[in-house]
């Protein structure tokens, strides 16, 4: 089983004696910066000129610098800009200004593990990765709780990188819930596999095939949407609470029997073979290269796939059905329906 760390394993004073630059003030960036500040850590936010995030950080009372200034000022540089911009940001704004003896901290291992960022050997390279969206990380911290975090050290130049990682994990609330020890390689490869094969890719395709099967057989799209998409949340909530067993316990015996009989007919052993191919493309860097090359070219493939997904009939039906739910407006004030298209 994984090695885990809690409050008593971490010394908050380590990070309290450092100047911390949080680069980016998005989902993770705002949560890390505010939780660090509330834990008594000296924080500045690093943003590009004209960034739409400057006002938000200033409203929260945080000092804002350029990425270069923040890097030169800091003992710990926390890279929380989107993964696809980190490599260029690093080579242009961070690398020329980072001081020997300082630390680089990430919340996802993509750029380090696949070699898009190659830090010099006189700095520590570490990770504290909350296992939840940034808005949950902030909300839980304010409530006196925390979101579990993954912690690892890729490069321990100072010899004290572990003390720093655990102290940072404590300051963002992570050790309240527990910090799990991993490696950059394991975090990166399992994260990509999970989102591609199961959570995002697998589930989206499963829902779309279910919707197509019912509507092509003549059932009304609203009915199809409820049965193969809307109710997914109820099932997932049960799985999160008590595993697959609790989900089966809570459903009707009819549903449970159908699960055993038909699940393996739909998700056949060749699906697992395809999962292994997906994993292999992740492990050997094929996926990373395809993503980064496309991003570098202005993301033509990404934009085409996003538009195709948005035009699937289930999206129009979903918008109709969801407008029937009054509580929907409270769910996410930052997300506008259809804004990703
Ligand atoms: P976001 O997309 O929310 O980050 C956006 C922030 O980055 C904004 O402040 C934006 O400012 C800034 N930014 C964008 N481009 C640049 C640039 N070229 N130079 C400087 N700043 C820029 O990122 P996330 O919080 O989603 O992800 C950050 C890291 O955390 C990633 O490594 C991700 O994998 C990891 N992570 C994310 C999780 C999540 O909950 N989203 C969960 C766990 C890990 P501007 O206004 O200038 O665009
Ligand atoms: Mg991910
Ligand atoms: Mg049903």
From TrEMBL:
Keyword Iron-sulfur: no
Species the sequence originates in: Actinomyces lilanjuaniae
Bound cofactor: record note: Binds 2 magnesium ions per subunit.
UniProt cross-references to NCBIfam families, sorted A to Z: ilvC, PRK05479.1, PRK13403.1
Signal peptide: none
Lineage, highest ranks first: Bacteria, Bacillati, Actinomycetota, Actinomycetes, Actinomycetales
Domain KARI C-terminal knotted: 183-328
Family listed: Belongs to the ketol-acid reductoisomerase family.
Name of the protein in question: Ketol-acid reductoisomerase (NADP(+))
EC number: 1.1.1.86
Binding site for Mg(2+) 2: 191, 227, 231
Keywords, alphabetical: Amino-acid biosynthesis, Branched-chain amino acid biosynthesis, Magnesium, Metal-binding, NADP, Oxidoreductase
Source organism superkingdom: Bacteria
